[in-house]
């Protein structure tokens, strides 16, 4: 097998399945995936993926359950969102367009909405399917605008509670329940989703942007729980952000988001994140500069950026250096062993046991993408324990060395193959393969 075929499946995909065809031209194989993704497949034995409307109904149900302390309703909601997560893992296990799914997981982490906030949790799956995937290869400003209007981010970052200090809602006579300005969404868009602190924005910019975004909320009384602009909560008047003036009203926020998406600091920030994800924890300057230039010159065309990524020479240079996070590692093992939807629940639990519960990032900045966070002794011990357990399930199926050759190809080192051959049992041999540097890295 051509080493580039293995690298394409591991670094740009989610790991090889044993029956995957070996692409003769790995770059062309990846190029063919730069197209509008197919809908997430509906798999037997698993619940259908939640739609935005169904998530909205759960949101309304959650609000009523919270007020009434309705335990059964809460359990029903959790079961529905758990089922949605299982469906996504099963989709990734069987996917024949894994570059699309790796990019989907990257952007889902970039626009983190965490199930640790129950009122936001039901919107994670719809965010992935109805915002990220349809915009995977559109312009970044379109993706940013769609994400900022999705109920998940609005609820997760509490923008529905934000009212301008001079808004109609704040100035209403007898109003004793003023919630005031909430800066969460504004701060995270600036810090995480667009320009980053490298742009040199100030606290005044954060406050001004929060005022621009007042009125961006969802309507709790609407069963669709769709985005709605509330003029009553919106801070009137012109605002200034990073030296630019924006008009009042919903359109002012749209203009501000597009301005931020097109900002040179945003190009650099996202280029760095993509190069870090696909190349190295400390990405080469040349790789970052190349992606940044494509981002800038194409107006944020994510299809062009994706094609540039797969043409970075640094991304094809062995040995593989990126430590897989638990999501990536568990999916790669599951795909390599040919697991299907019936194993999805066990794999989701494995992700949690290894320190990365699915869609439950602890903070809005998402899960880290560097080895120092995932190569700690305790974290590696959990992986070894899980690898030994999964090896016990499959040890009689096939030769561990054949498994290594099928999933790693020429990236499997002679040393690893030799030690697997010397192992005292098939289970131990499989464990050695699954915890080898070749399998722990991509």
Describe the sheet with the most strands. Answer: 2 strands, antiparallel
The run of helices and strands is HHHHHHHHHHHHEEEEHHHHHHHHHHHH
The overall pLDDT average reads 93
Strand content: under 5%
Computed Rg = 23 Å
Features:
442 residues; mainly alpha; two-stranded antiparallel ribbon; 24 helices; 55% helix
Description:
The protein is mainly α and 442 residues long. Among the domains are: 149-279 and 282-319, no CATH class; 326-440, no CATH class. Helix content is 55%, strand content 3%. The chain has 24 helices and four strands. The strands form two sheets. Strands 1-2 form a two-stranded antiparallel sheet. A two-stranded antiparallel ribbon has the order 3-4. The protein starts with a helix and ends with a helix.
Helix and strand layout, with pairings?
Blueprint: H1 3-11, H2 26-31, H3 52-68, H4 71-94, H5 98-110, H6 118-121, H7 124-132, H8 140-149, H9 151-156, H10 168-171, H11 184-193, H12 203-212, E1 216-218, E2 227-229, E3 239-241, E4 244-246, H13 250-261, H14 264-278, H15 285-297, H16 302-309, H17 326-336, H18 344-353, H19 371-374, H20 377-394, H21 400-408, H22 414-422, H23 426-434, H24 437-440
Antiparallel strand pairs: 1-2, 3-4
Helix pairs in contact: 3-4, 4-17, 4-18, 5-7, 8-13, 11-12, 14-15, 15-16, 17-18, 20-23, 21-23, 22-23
